[in-house]
Amino acid sequence: MVSPAIALAFVPLLLTLIIRYRYYFALFYRAVLVRIWKDCVTGMSREERAYQYVLTHATPGDPDSILDAFDVWCSKMEFISNIGPKKGKILDRLLMEQSPLTVLELGAHCGYSTVRIARSLPLGARLYSLEMDQRNAAIAEKIIRLAGFDDDTVELIVNPSDEVIPRLRSDYGLERLDFVFMDHWKKSYCPDLQMLEGSGLLGKGSMILADNVLFPGAPKFLRHIRKSGLYEWKVHRATLEYSKGIRDGMAELVYQGIK
Protein backbone atom coordinates (compact mmCIF):
# COMPACT_ATOMS: atom_id res chain seq x y z
CA MET A 1 0.00 0.00 0.00
CA VAL A 2 1.45 3.34 -1.09
CA SER A 3 1.48 5.92 1.66
CA PRO A 4 -0.26 9.27 1.09
CA ALA A 5 3.08 11.07 1.46
CA ILE A 6 4.65 9.08 -1.38
CA ALA A 7 1.57 9.54 -3.55
CA LEU A 8 1.64 13.31 -2.97
CA ALA A 9 5.29 13.39 -3.98
CA PHE A 10 4.30 12.26 -7.47
CA VAL A 11 1.64 14.97 -7.91
CA PRO A 12 4.06 17.68 -9.16
CA LEU A 13 5.55 15.23 -11.67
CA LEU A 14 2.10 14.22 -12.88
CA LEU A 15 1.02 17.85 -13.28
CA THR A 16 4.22 18.63 -15.17
CA LEU A 17 3.60 15.77 -17.59
CA ILE A 18 -0.01 16.80 -18.12
CA ILE A 19 0.97 20.40 -18.85
CA ARG A 20 3.89 19.46 -21.09
CA TYR A 21 1.93 16.97 -23.17
CA ARG A 22 -1.51 18.61 -22.98
CA TYR A 23 -1.75 19.10 -26.74
CA TYR A 24 -1.02 15.41 -27.33
CA PHE A 25 -3.65 14.41 -24.76
CA ALA A 26 -6.13 16.69 -26.52
CA LEU A 27 -5.25 15.11 -29.87
CA PHE A 28 -5.68 11.61 -28.45
CA TYR A 29 -9.10 12.58 -27.09
CA ARG A 30 -10.30 14.11 -30.38
CA ALA A 31 -8.71 11.61 -32.77
CA VAL A 32 -9.26 8.38 -30.84
CA LEU A 33 -11.76 8.56 -27.98
CA VAL A 34 -14.33 10.76 -29.71
CA ARG A 35 -14.02 8.66 -32.86
CA ILE A 36 -14.64 5.36 -31.01
CA TRP A 37 -17.64 6.80 -29.18
CA LYS A 38 -19.23 8.30 -32.30
CA ASP A 39 -18.57 5.18 -34.34
CA CYS A 40 -20.63 3.26 -31.77
CA VAL A 41 -23.38 5.87 -31.46
CA THR A 42 -23.86 6.65 -35.17
CA GLY A 43 -23.00 3.34 -36.83
CA MET A 44 -21.00 5.33 -39.39
CA SER A 45 -17.29 5.80 -39.90
CA ARG A 46 -15.65 9.13 -39.11
CA GLU A 47 -15.14 9.76 -42.82
CA GLU A 48 -18.83 9.08 -43.52
CA ARG A 49 -19.79 11.58 -40.81
CA ALA A 50 -17.47 14.17 -42.37
CA TYR A 51 -19.04 13.59 -45.77
CA GLN A 52 -22.56 14.02 -44.38
CA TYR A 53 -21.54 17.34 -42.83
CA VAL A 54 -19.95 18.58 -46.05
CA LEU A 55 -22.95 17.44 -48.08
CA THR A 56 -25.33 19.51 -45.94
CA HIS A 57 -23.12 22.57 -45.40
CA ALA A 58 -21.22 23.09 -48.68
CA THR A 59 -22.28 24.35 -52.09
CA PRO A 60 -22.04 21.69 -54.84
CA GLY A 61 -19.62 22.65 -57.57
CA ASP A 62 -17.76 25.10 -55.32
CA PRO A 63 -14.39 23.62 -54.19
CA ASP A 64 -13.73 26.49 -51.77
CA SER A 65 -17.05 25.91 -50.03
CA ILE A 66 -16.33 22.20 -49.70
CA LEU A 67 -12.88 22.82 -48.21
CA ASP A 68 -14.31 25.39 -45.79
CA ALA A 69 -16.96 22.91 -44.62
CA PHE A 70 -14.27 20.26 -44.10
CA ASP A 71 -12.15 22.70 -42.10
CA VAL A 72 -15.05 23.59 -39.82
CA TRP A 73 -15.89 19.94 -39.20
CA CYS A 74 -12.27 18.94 -38.55
CA SER A 75 -11.57 21.84 -36.22
CA LYS A 76 -14.85 21.87 -34.28
CA MET A 77 -16.33 18.37 -34.56
CA GLU A 78 -13.79 15.57 -35.01
CA PHE A 79 -10.14 15.34 -35.98
CA ILE A 80 -9.14 14.08 -39.43
CA SER A 81 -5.55 14.32 -40.60
CA ASN A 82 -6.08 16.37 -43.75
CA ILE A 83 -3.37 18.82 -44.77
CA GLY A 84 -5.63 21.58 -43.38
CA PRO A 85 -5.86 25.26 -44.28
CA LYS A 86 -2.49 26.50 -42.95
CA LYS A 87 -0.22 23.95 -44.58
CA GLY A 88 -2.70 23.87 -47.45
CA LYS A 89 -1.67 27.41 -48.36
CA ILE A 90 1.88 26.19 -48.91
CA LEU A 91 0.56 23.47 -51.23
CA ASP A 92 -1.59 26.04 -53.06
CA ARG A 93 1.36 28.38 -53.59
CA LEU A 94 3.66 25.66 -54.90
CA LEU A 95 1.03 24.42 -57.32
CA MET A 96 0.46 27.94 -58.63
CA GLU A 97 4.22 28.44 -59.06
CA GLN A 98 4.82 25.07 -60.72
CA SER A 99 1.65 24.87 -62.90
CA PRO A 100 2.07 21.07 -63.16
CA LEU A 101 0.30 19.17 -65.91
CA THR A 102 0.63 15.68 -64.40
CA VAL A 103 0.18 15.28 -60.65
CA LEU A 104 0.26 12.17 -58.45
CA GLU A 105 -1.35 12.15 -55.03
CA LEU A 106 -0.50 9.33 -52.64
CA GLY A 107 -3.26 9.15 -50.05
CA ALA A 108 -6.58 10.71 -51.06
CA HIS A 109 -8.21 9.67 -47.78
CA CYS A 110 -11.65 11.32 -48.03
CA GLY A 111 -10.83 13.81 -50.79
CA TYR A 112 -9.85 17.04 -49.01
CA SER A 113 -6.35 17.37 -50.46
CA THR A 114 -7.56 16.00 -53.80
CA VAL A 115 -10.01 18.89 -54.13
CA ARG A 116 -7.38 21.33 -52.89
CA ILE A 117 -4.93 20.19 -55.58
CA ALA A 118 -7.49 19.96 -58.39
CA ARG A 119 -8.76 23.51 -57.91
CA SER A 120 -5.21 24.88 -58.37
CA LEU A 121 -4.32 23.00 -61.54
CA PRO A 122 -3.97 24.72 -64.92
CA LEU A 123 -6.33 23.91 -67.79
CA GLY A 124 -5.59 20.52 -69.28
CA ALA A 125 -3.79 19.16 -66.22
CA ARG A 126 -4.62 15.76 -64.76
CA LEU A 127 -4.44 14.46 -61.20
CA TYR A 128 -3.99 10.77 -60.43
CA SER A 129 -5.06 10.20 -56.83
CA LEU A 130 -4.35 6.93 -55.01
CA GLU A 131 -6.27 5.58 -52.03
CA MET A 132 -5.92 1.99 -50.83
CA ASP A 133 -8.94 1.92 -48.48
CA GLN A 134 -12.07 1.18 -50.48
CA ARG A 135 -14.49 2.80 -48.02
CA ASN A 136 -12.47 6.00 -47.86
CA ALA A 137 -12.06 5.95 -51.64
CA ALA A 138 -15.84 5.78 -52.09
CA ILE A 139 -16.22 8.90 -49.95
CA ALA A 140 -13.34 10.64 -51.75
CA GLU A 141 -15.06 9.93 -55.07
CA LYS A 142 -18.26 11.58 -53.83
CA ILE A 143 -16.37 14.61 -52.50
CA ILE A 144 -14.38 15.03 -55.73
CA ARG A 145 -17.50 14.88 -57.90
CA LEU A 146 -19.42 17.12 -55.47
CA ALA A 147 -16.67 19.71 -55.98
CA GLY A 148 -17.30 19.56 -59.73
CA PHE A 149 -14.24 17.67 -60.96
CA ASP A 150 -14.79 14.95 -63.56
CA ASP A 151 -12.68 11.95 -64.62
CA ASP A 152 -10.79 14.06 -67.13
CA THR A 153 -9.35 16.16 -64.31
CA VAL A 154 -9.14 13.68 -61.42
CA GLU A 155 -8.71 9.93 -61.75
CA LEU A 156 -9.12 8.08 -58.47
CA ILE A 157 -7.16 4.82 -58.31
CA VAL A 158 -8.15 2.39 -55.55
CA ASN A 159 -5.06 0.31 -54.87
CA PRO A 160 -1.96 0.39 -52.66
CA SER A 161 0.76 2.74 -53.84
CA ASP A 162 3.40 0.00 -54.05
CA GLU A 163 1.21 -1.81 -56.59
CA VAL A 164 0.30 1.24 -58.67
CA ILE A 165 3.61 3.14 -58.91
CA PRO A 166 5.39 0.41 -60.94
CA ARG A 167 2.43 0.41 -63.38
CA LEU A 168 1.98 4.16 -63.89
CA ARG A 169 3.85 4.09 -67.17
CA SER A 170 2.42 0.87 -68.60
CA ASP A 171 -1.18 1.09 -67.35
CA TYR A 172 -1.76 4.86 -67.31
CA GLY A 173 0.53 6.02 -70.07
CA LEU A 174 2.50 8.44 -67.90
CA GLU A 175 5.86 9.69 -69.15
CA ARG A 176 6.67 12.22 -66.42
CA LEU A 177 5.34 13.39 -63.09
CA ASP A 178 5.56 17.14 -62.58
CA PHE A 179 4.30 17.13 -58.98
CA VAL A 180 3.82 14.45 -56.31
CA PHE A 181 1.95 14.98 -53.05
CA MET A 182 2.50 12.41 -50.29
CA ASP A 183 0.07 12.12 -47.41
CA HIS A 184 -0.43 8.38 -46.96
CA TRP A 185 1.24 5.90 -44.57
CA LYS A 186 4.44 7.56 -43.37
CA LYS A 187 6.32 4.25 -43.42
CA SER A 188 5.60 4.12 -47.17
CA TYR A 189 7.17 7.51 -47.93
CA CYS A 190 10.71 6.22 -48.37
CA PRO A 191 10.03 3.02 -50.38
CA ASP A 192 7.49 4.84 -52.57
CA LEU A 193 9.93 7.66 -53.27
CA GLN A 194 12.58 5.11 -54.19
CA MET A 195 10.11 3.39 -56.54
CA LEU A 196 9.36 6.73 -58.17
CA GLU A 197 13.08 7.34 -58.62
CA GLY A 198 13.46 3.94 -60.26
CA SER A 199 10.40 4.39 -62.48
CA GLY A 200 11.98 7.11 -64.60
CA LEU A 201 8.90 9.32 -64.09
CA LEU A 202 10.76 11.99 -62.14
CA GLY A 203 12.49 14.51 -64.36
CA LYS A 204 14.70 17.46 -63.50
CA GLY A 205 12.48 19.97 -61.71
CA SER A 206 9.81 17.47 -60.65
CA MET A 207 8.54 18.46 -57.21
CA ILE A 208 7.58 16.21 -54.31
CA LEU A 209 5.74 17.60 -51.29
CA ALA A 210 5.45 15.26 -48.29
CA ASP A 211 3.21 16.10 -45.33
CA ASN A 212 3.69 15.14 -41.65
CA VAL A 213 7.42 14.43 -41.94
CA LEU A 214 7.97 15.64 -38.35
CA PHE A 215 4.75 14.37 -36.71
CA PRO A 216 3.99 11.48 -36.78
CA GLY A 217 7.28 11.65 -38.69
CA ALA A 218 9.06 9.95 -41.60
CA PRO A 219 12.69 9.56 -40.43
CA LYS A 220 13.73 7.02 -43.09
CA PHE A 221 12.35 9.30 -45.80
CA LEU A 222 14.30 12.28 -44.45
CA ARG A 223 17.49 10.23 -44.17
CA HIS A 224 17.13 9.08 -47.75
CA ILE A 225 16.71 12.55 -49.22
CA ARG A 226 19.69 13.80 -47.19
CA LYS A 227 21.97 11.01 -48.41
CA SER A 228 20.75 10.49 -51.98
CA GLY A 229 22.01 13.76 -53.45
CA LEU A 230 19.10 13.68 -55.88
CA TYR A 231 17.19 16.66 -54.52
CA GLU A 232 17.26 20.23 -53.50
CA TRP A 233 15.03 20.18 -50.46
CA LYS A 234 13.78 21.97 -47.38
CA VAL A 235 11.23 21.48 -44.62
CA HIS A 236 8.39 23.95 -44.16
CA ARG A 237 7.90 24.16 -40.39
CA ALA A 238 4.31 24.24 -39.21
CA THR A 239 1.96 22.84 -36.59
CA LEU A 240 -0.18 19.74 -36.95
CA GLU A 241 -3.41 20.43 -38.80
CA TYR A 242 -6.42 21.41 -36.65
CA SER A 243 -4.24 21.32 -33.53
CA LYS A 244 -2.21 23.61 -31.31
CA GLY A 245 1.26 23.15 -29.96
CA ILE A 246 2.25 20.02 -31.93
CA ARG A 247 5.15 20.75 -34.23
CA ASP A 248 5.03 19.35 -37.74
CA GLY A 249 6.41 20.10 -41.17
CA MET A 250 6.20 19.39 -44.88
CA ALA A 251 9.24 18.40 -46.94
CA GLU A 252 9.58 20.11 -50.31
CA LEU A 253 11.85 18.26 -52.74
CA VAL A 254 12.93 19.33 -56.23
CA TYR A 255 14.40 16.45 -58.22
CA GLN A 256 17.81 17.18 -59.74
CA GLY A 257 18.66 13.74 -61.03
CA ILE A 258 21.94 11.86 -60.78
CA LYS A 259 24.87 14.27 -60.81
Task: Provide an overview of this structure.
The protein is of the alpha/beta class and 259 residues long. It has two domains: 4-77, no CATH class; 85-255, Vaccinia Virus protein VP39 (Rossmann fold, 3-Layer(aba) Sandwich). Helices cover 51% and strands 18% of the residues. The protein has a seven-stranded mixed β-sheet with strand order 3-2-1-4-5-7-6, with helices on both faces. The longest helix is centred in the N-terminal third of the chain and has 21 residues, at 22-42. It starts with a helix and ends with a strand. The model has no long low-confidence stretch (mean pLDDT 93).
Mean pLDDT: 93
CATH class of the largest domain: Alpha Beta
CATH superfamily of the largest domain: Vaccinia Virus protein VP39
Based on CA atoms alone, the radius of gyration comes out at 20 Å
Number of domains: 2
The CATH architecture of the largest domain would be 3-Layer(aba) Sandwich
| Topology, number of strands | 7
Shape assignment: globular
Structural class: alpha/beta
Distance between the termini: 67 Å
- Main beta sheet, described? 7 strands, mixed
Order of helices and strands: HHHHHHEHEHEHHEHEHHEE
* Helix share bin: 40-55%
Low-confidence stretches: none
Please report which band the strand proportion falls in: under 5%, 5-15%, 15-25%, 25-35%, 35-45% or over 45%. Answer: 15-25%
CATH fold name of the largest domain: Rossmann fold
Count of runs of 4 or more consecutive helical residues: 13
The largest beta-sheet arranges its strands as 3-2-1-4-5-7-6
Family: Belongs to the class I-like SAM-binding methyltransferase superfamily. Cation-dependent O-methyltransferase family.
Pfam families: Methyltransf_3
Subcellular location: Endoplasmic reticulum
GO biological process, one term: detection of mechanical stimulus involved in sensory perception
